[in-house]
Amino acid sequence: MPLGRLAAWLMIAPALILLIGVFLLPIGWFLIGSLAELGTLTEIWEEAQDVLFSGTVARVLLNTNGIGAVVTLLVLVIGYPVSYALSRAKGFAFTAILLCIVLPYFTSTIVRTYAWMVLLGRTGLINQILLGLGLVDAPLELMYNRTGVIIGMTYVLLPYMVLTLYAAMKAVDPRLLQAAEGMGASPATVFLKVFMPLTLHGVIAGVLITFILAIGFFITPALMGGPGDMMIAMLIEREVELTQNWASAAMMTIVLLAVTLILYGVYSRFADKEAPR
Amino acid sequence: MMGPVLRATLLKALVVLLCFGLVAPIVIVAIASFSGDGYLKFPPETLSIRWYERFLGDYRWRSAIVNSLFIGVLTSVFSTVIGFLAAYALMRGQFRFKAVIASLLLMPVIVPHIITAVAVYFLSARMGLVGVRPWISVAHTVVALPVVLVILQSALRTVDPALERAAMVCGCTRFGVFRRVVLPLALPGMVSAALFSFLTSFDELVISLFLAGIRAETLPVRIWNSLLLEVEPTIAAVSTLLKAVTTAALAVDAVIRKLRGGPVAALR
Question: Could you tell me which residues are beta bridge partners of residue B93?
Fold first, then answer.
């Protein structure tokens, strides 16, 4: 039943008012308002150069990209076989694998992070096992450093990658693989020449969405990282909560927001259900 | 060269191992939360509910439960109602900027929560809204709305417009069509939407962290504050409770979808 123009606008109005009033306007006001306090545009520009090219921010941006890249790679390497198995599984196996992915996916990030803190701590399960087997003499430092951040974030972000890859892999017609096999291609050739190219757009979409989420991460690196693992979202929080330096928080927010939106623009070209030509 | 059987077995073993790795941390904490030992040991040597007693016996944890439930239910109501209206308009309406509005409404899941949180905090601090629970629900509704829209748009896709036209032809008013045809048909989707928006709020930490103040600490905020000090065992009990709520919500959703035969994978 077609909906009149006025009726449609009235129905979408509450959502739009909420989005504008509690999302777009606050972000705009925060960015413009805190920068405007610095004075004229040239003064803002000078301050921005001081802040963004300072040692701390440069190091934090480097951390953010480095951690984001390593985590994305790990998530891809781990997620690929799981998605593949999920896309081929039927019946009980399918439900079992799906449950293993969906259960963590819908569990609160802080709960998932805490679970790894319990496992990785000095007296945690992993160290208990390693010490018990006599593999190490002293507990390993698995947390409050880069290792902890990477393990924790990989765990939290894995379901996003698996679900994205699954959508792409499910869309591959199994008859294409059978045809290639029937014409004498080895399993390796079928995988490399048929399956990989057909699911490549899913890999790109998965990598982008994981990286986008990783660079904005706050909870896991803040709890599991050490002093050298500060990421950009943590620095923004610190500028606001601790030093109340709204202007430099706004500058870092602009950088994070711009990178996120650009990558998301690229992502939405790949995330479509159909494979690109 | 590996034989096909060996290769399939290796893949299976790898997947089983990885799936185990995905679930194990959550299960281990749940089991360890019933430990009777002085610190979290796995497997626990003695079983007890002492961490649950300490959790539920503490006034501050109890009020965090109340805050989380209050904010979650309110968020669920807000976002399901607003989301249903918007999803219907996007589905059946023809108006300018429709595509732009549709993608704008999904932005809050893409923009890092820290940005939304800081921006809303900037506004709230000036208006004295920090620590006001309904206001936290409003902020949570912003990030829950995309989830609700995705679920409801796929639920509404299964409602045949011909049924609505037929009801109109038979003399039903537009509001009547809405109430007697669209709502009942979309009901399973609405329940899913309500459950998942509740979960979004119930599990949300970053926005709550800025907006909660000391008056409206939610469970995740309380976990955060105590984790900054030490990894104490009480939190194992708290996270087990949070997971139980999540699992219950997912189970209810699965049962409803099975009963009503609604959209099979509302989330995809």
Answer: A3
B199 and B143 Cβ atoms separated by less than 8 Å: no
Distance CA B247, CA A92 (A): 19
Residues in Cβ contact with B83 at an 8 Å cutoff, skipping those fewer than 6 apart: A15, B145, B148, B149, B152, B193, B197
Give the mean model confidence (pLDDT) for residues B19-29.
90
Buried b (16+ CB within 10 A) or exposed e, A63-94: bbbebbebbbebbbebbbbbbbbbbebeeeee
CATH number for the domain formed by residue range(s) B59-260:
1.10.3720.10
Chain B residues within 8 A of A5 when measuring between CB atoms: 93-95
The model's pTM: 0.90
Total domains in the fold of chain A: 1
Q: Do A163 and B268 touch (CB under 8 A)?
A: yes
Measured CA to CA in angstroms, residue A29 lies from A25, B118, B128 at distances of 6, 11, 17
Instruction: Write down the mean pLDDT value for chain A.
Output: 90
CB–CB contacts below 8 A, A to B: 248
Q: Is residue A39 part of a domain?
A: no
User: Where does residue B131 fall: left (phi above 0), alpha (psi -120 to 50 degrees), or beta otherwise?
Assistant: left
**ipTM for the complex shown:** 0.91
User: Using CA of residue A254, residue A257, residue A259, residue A265, what is the dihedral sign?
Assistant: negative
CB contact under 8 A, B247 and A103: yes
Nearest one of B153, B162, B161 to B189, comparing CA atoms: B153
In degrees and rounded to multiples of 5, residue A3 shows phi and psi of -105, 135
Contacts of B101 (CB under 8 A, 6+ apart): A12, A16, B90
Domain assignment present for A260: yes
User: CATH number of the domain that A79 lies in?
Assistant: 1.10.3720.10
Residue carrying the six token digits 């509001």: B175
Count of CB atoms situated within 10 Å of the CB of A104: 21
Structural domain boundaries enclosing A221: 45-270
Interval B129-153: pLDDT, tens: 999 999 999 999 999 999 999 999 9
Domain-embedded: residue A118: yes
Distance in Å, alpha carbon of B61 to nearest chain A alpha carbon: 16
CB-based contacts of B16: which residues, under 8 Å, 6+ apart? none
Decide: A82 and A162 in contact? Cβ < 8 Å: yes
CA nearest A275: which of A196, A178, A161?
A196
Residues of B in contact with A217 (CB under 8 A): 112
Q: Quick check: is A16 in a domain? A: no
Residue extents of the structural domains in chain B: 59-260
Q: DSSP letters of B72-134?
A: HHHHHHHHHHHHHHHHHHHHHB--TTHHHHHHHHHHHHHS-HHHHHHHHHHHHHHHT-TT-HH
